[in-house]
Design brief:
The protein is an alpha/beta fold. The protein has 12 helices and 17 strands. The strands form 4 sheets. Strands 1, 2, 3, 4, 7, 8, 9, 10, 12, 13 and 15 form an 11-stranded mixed β-sheet that branches. A two-stranded antiparallel ribbon has the order 5-6. Helix 9 links the parallel strand 9 and strand 10. The termini are far apart.
């Protein structure tokens, strides 16, 4: 009886002992499983965030600031003149030609902080991350600066939108409007001296580059050059040009910046009268040390063979250029999407229209909001297909009304072009 009782107690003890081991083992396995699940979820979340960052595309829109009163324009065209005058007077110049284009917001004054605030809000709400201002600075001083300095930078919501500068260092010509078969008079030469460029460098760093909403790429202020030949000619040699570019980088670092992101607008076909195309972009980009390259408008690379050349035809031809530039330039290439092209408002309406050269030239047709949206989507898909490719694109243009390329709403299509940007890049 006693022996039986001892065995029973021993069996009970062993049962409890092994039960505790089993419970500990199950608890340990459960903890390991939970920890593994938590680690997996964290890893997946980090990978998803990294992929999201990698797929995040910056959308910039060029901004042409000739829609406010400027003292140079007043001296040449008369008091109160702005480029809106040409927009208002535009007329159809050939069969099935739509002109004038009428702005839905009215003929706004971009030097007004209130009017500019409307533009900033629309841009932000529809997925535009930055304006790239066409920036004019000549040997004898600035031009068209009030849109940026008095409008954009003084708008109450200015810090909602980034801004960068493209130095539009081309010759300013008497083409507002231009009369065919007459002299193409240069009003303000684009070339500046080395001394003047050094002053421009100080002005840029002191006035713009340190602002909280100045657009930076890889932590460096984005500064783009439109006319490379004119830029080099101002210094007289490649060596002197590179030295000036490097000096700007050094001055930026001395001012607490990380340097300068030098961008080049590389174009293959001249548009404006007097434009000259460099023949060796890859070599020049490397020699001068540009950080990236881009385009201003599709027709810098694509001829327009028809009076109204189909939008999709121009898009596909431009995509071929994109592939070539990406393969040959040796630096990141930021693609462009162009909304349209129609320079006819800059022609003298008292003359006959023919396809003779800027601004008497063929236009892009069939640029419906749907086709524009498709071009944006194809551009986005093409960018994301390259895991190591550029994640910046630009749009021509926010407001090139007299060249027919604008995202701002008109009375025909309203906000549809901006809604296309929002659908592809924000929603």
């Amino acid at each position: 009886m006693k022996k039986y009782s001892t065995n029973t107690k021993l069996a009970a003890s062993l049962k409890i002992f092994f039960g505790l081991i089993l419970m500990t083992s199950v608890s340990s396995c459960t903890e390991v499983k939970v920890e593994t699940i938590e680690k997996t979820e964290k890893t997946e979340k980090v990978e998803e965030m990294a992929k999201s960052d990698k797929d995040d595309i910056t959308v910039a829109a060029y901004y042409f600031p000739n829609y406010h009163e400027d003292k140079r324009n007043a001296e040449y065209h008369g008091d109160g003149w702005t480029e809106w005058d040409l927009v208002k007077k535009a007329q159809p110049r050939f069969e099935n030609h739509h002109q004038p284009n009428v702005p839905a917001w009215g003929y706004t004054d971009e030097a007004s902080p209130v009017d500019m605030a409307q533009k900033i809000k629309a841009a932000v709400d529809h997925g535009v991350n930055a304006f790239i201002f066409d920036w004019y600075m000549y040997e004898d001083g600035p031009f068209l600066e009030r849109g940026l300095d008095e409008g954009f930078l003084k708008a109450e919501n200015t810090e909602d939108l980034k801004f960068g500068l493209m130095w539009a260092n081309h010759d300013w010509l008497d083409i507002h409007p231009y009369t065919r078969d007459t002299e193409q008079k240069i009003l303000y030469p684009g070339k500046v001296s080395p001394k003047r460029f050094d002053e421009i460098t100080d002005h840029l760093i002191e006035k713009y580059f340190n602002l909280p909403n100045y657009w930076k790429v890889d932590g460096k202020p984005y500064f783009s050059v439109y006319d490379l030949k004119t830029f080099i000619e101002g210094f007289g040699s490649l060596e002197a040009t590179k030295a000036a570019m490097d000096k700007m980088r050094e001055k930026a670092k001395a001012a607490g910046l990380a340097g300068i992101h030098w961008n080049l607008v590389a174009w293959g076909r001249p548009i404006l009268p007097g434009e000259r195309v460099p023949t060796n972009y890859p070599e020049l980009i490397k020699s001068l040390g540009f950080d990236s390259s881009t385009s201003y408008v599709w027709i810098h690379h694509v001829a327009l063979p028809e009076t109204q050349t189909d939008f999709n035809y121009v898009r596909d031809k431009y995509f071929a250029h994109w592939d070539k530039a990406k393969a040959e330039y040796g630096v990141p290439y930021y693609p462009n999407v162009t909304m349209c092209w129609d320079a006819s408002p800059r022609t003298d309406l008292n003359t006959e229209w023919e396809n003779l050269g800027y601004p008497y030239m063929n236009k892009i047709g069939n640029n419906t909001p749907e086709n524009f949206k498709q071009a944006l989507q194809l551009t986005k898909d093409k960018m994301l297909a390259d895991p190591n490719g550029a994640r910046i694109l630009n749009i021509n243009c926010w407001n090139e009304w007299t060249e027919g390329s604008y995202l701002e709403p008109d009375i025909v299509n309203g906000m549809k072009y901006l809604e296309a940007v929002k659908t592809v890049f924000k929603e």
